[in-house]
Design a protein that fits this description.
The chain is of the alpha+beta class and 65 residues long. It has a single domain, classed as Irregular (Factor Xa Inhibitor). The protein is 32% helix and 11% strand. It has three helices and three strands. Strands 1-2-3 form a three-stranded antiparallel beta sheet. The radius of gyration is 15 Å and the shape is elongated.
């Protein structure tokens, strides 16, 4: 049986935690940063988990992460 191919863009953006959940970075951190408060930017630094509704889709995109 051939291996499945991972979507390379997704494989670079997501990582798996020790318990098997999928981590992601927060959005809105790349441009128009001057209008965002320091408090907001500090919150955007922290990663978060992929929502439960989207986990199945992520597993299809990157089955080996």
């Amino acid at each position: 049986m051939p291996k499945m191919k991972s979507n390379r863009g997704a494989a670079k953006r997501f990582r798996t935690t020790g318990t098997g959940k999928i981590r992601r970075a927060r959005a809105c951190k790349s441009h128009l940063l001057t209008g965002k408060s320091t408090k907001r930017m500090r919150g955007l630094r922290k990663g978060t988990l992929v929502d439960k509704a989207d986990v199945k889709r992520m597993r299809v995109l990157a089955p080996y992460i």
